[in-house]
Amino acid sequence: HVALFTGTGALRVLRVEDGGIVLQDQFQDRVLKGGEFSPDGKTLLAHGLGQPGLRVYDTATWQPQATRDIGSRRRIVRFANDWLLLAEYGERVEALAPGAPSASARPLGDLFVVDATLSADATLAFLLTRDGEVVRAAMGTPPSLVPLLRDRLVRRLAVDPAGVWLALARQADVRLVRADGTGPGATLATGVEPVETVALSVDAQLLATGDRHGTARVWRVADRTLLAVLRGHDQRVAGVAFDRSGNRLVTASWDGTARLWDRGVLTAPAAGLAAQLRTAWGLTLPDVLALPVP
């Protein structure tokens, strides 16, 4: 399934197979900031600026399981392994379980956070402050905060589910560093200013970026090779995400559309794709590139 969160407070969930709508909910009358599926796919969490701030859905029935007031100042909400990471418009970051009382929240420090991400098991959080500092938080009791680096050009960050690689989206490139702060990193030059969003595949073999010109790119992490340039959106790509299998990439844009890309096509040699086109449809690659974008 693909979940779409809109600026009008509406949530829609579509089936990947045929695009059919399985859930359409006017969650609230203000901007939905986003949401995430749980790693096992059994739960969908959505959050926004209105009330209620947080809603949890059961994906077996697509009925709301719970709602929660998390305050109108919550700018960032991340979800992994039944833990929420909450950051305000201001200097307060905390982690808590969706069903737990607020008293059980774990404060992660007084940091002005502009982006954050969690490892799949929720043992590690990575925070980006407005000063460009990247901080690793080990979610113990109490949490342990370790500054990794400072780079004022970093705009967004993403971590692979295992918490090994950290991708830092900058003005016109992406820095790839070890999440534990050890070893050399690498820079992937996108040539586009600026990178708006970044994601790593489940196996950490692929990295995807989206820019404000409506283009997404896919890279192979091992040798930093650019594999594909994905065009079709006509406004900024606001989000990129790989599914849990790592076989599909979803791109979402301010143009109101989401596009689904198959990993097999993204990583296949161009010559092989051209041969498939000729065999299946009797078309050359220039013929296909000349077709109007759907």
Could you walk me through the main structural features you see in this protein, from its secondary elements to its overall organization?
The protein has a 7-stranded antiparallel β-sheet with strand order 8-9-10-11-12-13-14, with no helix packed on it. The radius of gyration is 19 Å and the shape is globular. The chain is mainly β. Helix content is 7%, strand content 50%. About 2% of the residues have low confidence.
Keywords:
294 residues; mainly beta; 7-stranded antiparallel beta sheet; 3 helices
Low-confidence stretches: 99-103
Which range does the strand content fall in?
over 45%
Tell me roughly what share of residues is in helical segments: under 10%
SSE class: mainly beta
How confident is the prediction overall: mean pLDDT? 80
Q: Calculate the terminal CA-CA distance, rounded to whole Å.
A: 21 Å
Described by strand count, sense and barrel closure, the largest sheet is: 7 strands, antiparallel
Per DSSP, the total helix count is 3
Shape: globular
Spatial strand order of the main sheet: 8-9-10-11-12-13-14
The total beta strand count reads 25
Radius of gyration: 19 Å
SSE order in H/E notation? EEEEEEEEEEEEEEEEEEEEEEEEEHHH
